[in-house]
Amino acid sequence: MVQRCSVQLMLDLLHAKVGVPLNTPNIDTASWEELGVESLGLTEVCTSLEHAFGIEIPNEEALSMKNVQELVAFVNSIAA
Q1: Which domains does the chain show, CATH number per domain?
Q2: 15-21: long-range contacts (C-beta < 8 A, 24 or more apart)?
Q3: What mean pLDDT comes out for the span 39-64?
């Protein structure tokens, strides 16, 4: 069975890597700016995802994602 990225995994990474509180309202649809995630923090999260799923996330692709849901969907589309 192929491991899939989940919103919960992404939230755990955001909390561990950049300190996003897990009780943030609408955390899965809030923009990176609303979550206080800057490009360096997003890059760190993406690096963790690359290692976990054996994928490569181009920096320009990562920066084009607007929120957690978009990034989860993208990771699952290339990790399949």
Answers
A1: 7-79 (1.10.1200.10)
A2: 17/41, 17/44, 17/45, 17/48, 18/44, 18/45
A3: 93
